[in-house]
Amino acid sequence: MRKRRGSRVFMVATSLSLVICMAVPPTAVAVPPPPPNPSDSELSAGRTEAKAKAGKVGELTNQLARAEARLMELQAEVEAKMEDANKALVDLETAEDLAAKAKADAEAAKRESDNASQSIENARKQLDEFAAGSYKQGTTVGSMSAYMGAKSPEDLLARAQLLNAVSGSELDALESMERARTVKANKDSLARAALDEATKRQAEAEQAKRNADAATASAQQAQRDQAGKSKELEAARADYERQLDEAQAKVGGLENQRKRYQDWLAAKQREDAANAAAAQASAPAGPRPAGPRPAVNRPPTGNAVRIVIDRALSQLGVQYAWGGGNGSGPTRGIRDGGVADSFGDYNKVGFDCSGLMIYAFAGVGIRLPHYSGYQAAAGRRVPLNQMAPGDMLFWATRGRIHHVAMYIGNGQMVEAPYSGSRVRIAPVRYGGIVPYATRLL
């Protein structure tokens, strides 16, 4: 019994001691030795160095921004030149078609001319037979030359005798000969004129294509030069950003040392408050209420508009191929002699900007030419602030359109942007955009 009572007393005493320990505040921990305290001159020198580095980074950033803006201008120039080449290619194909038709017409005219020559030959045979028969009968009727061109009274008399002597069938033969000669001359003249005009048009189109290709190559070289400058500026900025990071880290280290020293000075007076603040800071934070999800504005659901937009969106992710795309879908690109070739567009199956529009609008039976400049004039123009889903948007440089995209609503558009990219959705870009949209629906 005593032993059991002693154990109970021990347990109560232990419990009381625990309660007492929990109720008594903990003893303050001893403050460690003071940390290093950098001088004001060290802090000032570090801040000055960091400020200088930041200024240089800002200067290089501004230069890079200007260089990138110039690069975008040159990109627009390249796109414009490439569209000029695209237009020249379309015009050349048209001229070649006209030349082929003119050649076919000339060949048809030659066949008719040959037929006319045969008619003349037949008429002459009939006259020869008539003249031979008249001679055998002892009738002097004059010569063929007398009929064809009288130059004296005797010739006129011979011609009159010939006309009086010619029967109805022989007279018909003479008239057929004259008509055949006239037809031959007219056909030859028309065929030569048509062929000359077609040849001229084709030569002009070929020269325009050569000029467009040369201009494209020049613009691409300027773009490459500018891209090299941009890379140099980017490298210089990256180097100064690294130096800035090092300088800021140095200043941050000094400032942290100063802050630690100042904290040490006040540590003894703030121990209780710091412990309370630490306990409060360690308390778990309550869940944050979820904010409202942003509304999604969808384009109008009109049947034709919906079909056109859906067809364009169905090609998202399809690779860009200059000259690619028709009403049935993506096609193999063509050579441009420059940027597109460097990306291997001629070996890719995809769309360029105007090819994507051709495919989208083919879904509602609208046929478009493969040139953004012609597409801009294919429908009704509306002010840009009235653009609606399904409208085509265009970009130009110095009045020359070089890019097209389709507005799909909510400030977004779908486009095939440039070589090396893919069909995508992007916010409407207002730099270089023309002040109207083209509406086909």
UniProtKB/TrEMBL annotation:
Location of the region described as Disordered in the Swiss-Prot/TrEMBL record: 29-57, 196-233, 272-301
Ranges of residues in domain NlpC/P60: 302-441
Parts forming coiled coils: 57-126
Keyword Transcription (UniProt): no
Pfam families on file: NLPC_P60
InterPro entries: NLP_P60_dom, Papain-like_cys_pep_sf, PG_Endopeptidase_C40
UniProt keyword annotations, A-Z: Coiled coil, Hydrolase, Protease, Signal, Thiol protease
PROSITE patterns recorded: NLPC_P60
Annotated signal sequence range: 1-30
Family from the record: Belongs to the peptidase C40 family.
Name assigned to this protein: C40 family peptidase
Organism: Actinokineospora xionganensis
Organismal lineage: Bacteria, Bacillati, Actinomycetota, Actinomycetes, Pseudonocardiales
